[in-house]
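Following up on my earlier thread - several people asked me to post the actual chain instead of describing it. Fair enough. Here it is, all 238 residues.
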Amino acid sequence: MKYVLDSHTHTIASGHAYNTINEMAQAAADKGLELLGITEHGIRMPGTCHEYYFTNLKVLSRRMAGIEVMFGTEANLVDYDGTIDMPEKLLRQMDVVVVSLHLPCIRPGSREENTAAVIGAMKNPYVNIIGHPDDGRYHLDYEEIARAAKEYHVLLEVNNTSLSPMNYRQNSRENYLIMLEQCCRFGTPVILNSDAHWSGDIGNCCYSKGLIEEAGFPEELIVNRSVKEYKKYINRAD
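Reply from S.P.:
Thanks for posting it. Predicted structure:
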């Protein structure tokens, strides 16, 4: 199966990434992608951009280097009720919203607390994707996560960076296998994303593709196969 999009990447604006918007778009085009999502870290992540950066995304062209580019955020969960660090006035302006658990923004709680936080975020009509729900430091109930993602029409991400031998997240491979089993059970779609922080990593799904094959996960539940299919899960509040 050809994967035609990568919806979770970062530029220098996130503070710990290494390429510009134009460089990222050109790299995506060079790799044959049809769509690139640039999702800068939310405003509580140390070193990231100011909220003015997000309000000004409207000035950018959504077509660069011959491909579609969507601009948004990887917002941060900040409590176990599912509150995220981006107010609604900003979320309304985003093309795509990823929400993730990050240590600088929320400490790991119990399995029940972490699960409640993620499901609470899913209930937000502006949230499209749950980013890297794999980190063993944040224990999750994957049966409940997969069930809720199906109910609230939110994509669960299989994050290639999490599966890299260089990554610091814990037990990602084992947790993804459990999550994918539950996604199969409930018919919950997933999205494979690179989480690229430099242009050379855009579209890189080498580890996640291998895991998907190992799990025997059905192609029809992978939205990367089609921009049209992907967009069924984006801008839900509209």
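The chain has a mean pLDDT of 97. That should answer part of your original question.
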